[in-house]
Amino acid sequence: MRTPIFKLDAFTTRLFSGNPAAVMPLDHFPADSVLQGIAAENNLSETAFLVPEGTDYRLRWFTPSTEVPLCGHATLASAAVVMDRLEPGRGEVLFHTASGALQVVRKDGRYIMDFPARVSEAIATPTVLAEALGIAPIEVHVNAFNYLALLPGAPVLRALAPDMAAIASLDRAGVIVTAEGEGTYDFVSRYFAPAKGIPEDPVTGSAHCMLAPYWASRLNRTAFRAFQASQRGGEVICRLRGERVELEGACVFYLEGTVQIPDVSAP
Length: 267
Fold this sequence. Notes:
The chain has 267 residues and is of the alpha+beta class. It folds into two domains: 2-115 and 249-260, Roll (Diaminopimelate Epimerase, Chain A, domain 1); 121-242, Diaminopimelate Epimerase, Chain A, domain 1 (Roll). The protein contains six helices and 18 strands. The protein has helices at 32-42, 72-86, 127-133, 154-159, 164-168, 205-219; strands spanning 2-10, 19-25, 47-53, 56-62, 67-68, 92-97, 100-107, 110-116, 121-123, 139-142, 146-150, 174-180, 187-193, 198-201, 223-228, 234-241, 244-249, 251-260. It has an 18-stranded mixed β-sheet that branches. It is globular, with a radius of gyration of 18 Å. The mean pLDDT is 97.
């Protein structure tokens, strides 16, 4: 079975920055083992698979090692593929996902995604987390998905070199570190998820679903310009809307082609 493949850099306006994602439109989902094999072969933080569902699309995301319930940058990339390649001129799209219906609207060459907010609660700093990070955070928050650790400042955050094996052994899938912003940014962050096959994710939309409500309560604001300070780096505009978060960013197309995959139908 031959199928198109697109590779885009998301949350950026420049090639070779932001977060790369593969997007693969299909007419049906093959077996999960095939999807996982493709994602491992692509070896990007996420591969997105799209299947038409009426005028909408069913969307799934896979890291090189597992399926994930929510992914921002690959949703952004998927929206760009739908609106710029599959249905040129389309101004919005609705994706049906494991995290519910996610709407994406195009505006002025950028994409605005409507995602669920991920609230968190403050906890005492787990010793294992501080040891894994190599620093005692100012405070720690947690939800069902990630730890969030507040660090003293952007320079400390940028210099952080955590123990990835220790991070992978924690009881949450990932760790967000964040600090007050510098320059025009309200806050900065990094995201580590070695347990999901992603030692450090370049730019993470789903992490900002937790970061936005956290910084809203800290700064008493609902709109932010954020920067994820990975080696590639990327900008995310965040707006907290009650129990939802708007994430806004841009995409750049890098690669377009076709691949041959086994047509093993899902059970």
